[in-house]
Design goal:
extended
Length: 171
Amino acid sequence: MRVTSVALAAALTLVCVSTSLSGQRPDDQIDARSLQLLAEGRAARTAGNLDGATDLIETALAVDPRNRQAFIVLAEVAETRGLPGKAIRLYREALTLEPNDIAALRGQGEALVAKGAVAVARGNLAKIKTLCKGACPEANQLAAVIAKGPPLTTAQVETKAPEAKPVAAQN
């Protein structure tokens, strides 16, 4: 009787482990619905419908959160809207999935420059140069953005206040 219960427990364990392993998809297989939604989101972005593009791409990520390209396109939409902080976070999500994604490193570097973090962007540039063997257009694009520097904001522009004229003494 004891052998039967141990054998039954071992068989159940084997069945549970084998079904959970066979039910998982490899990391490089993205759900087709997610890819379709991403394609629709890209089309909406190209048409200038940023709200619709954001909705479609976020839905693509809800369907399959491993869709690295969706994170990158969503980050590009955020940059178009002038939200470099959000873009940096989205590029970080893409880099979590694939740390050596050159497009994500370049995009994150450009967003970092827009936020004023030029030193961190130089780190991204160094990593891109390490990953690229030979000519690398992404490295050249990021180097040009770093050389240009962060954009000037109204707080950084020095305005000259009109000089105060002395008030004549009243007698």
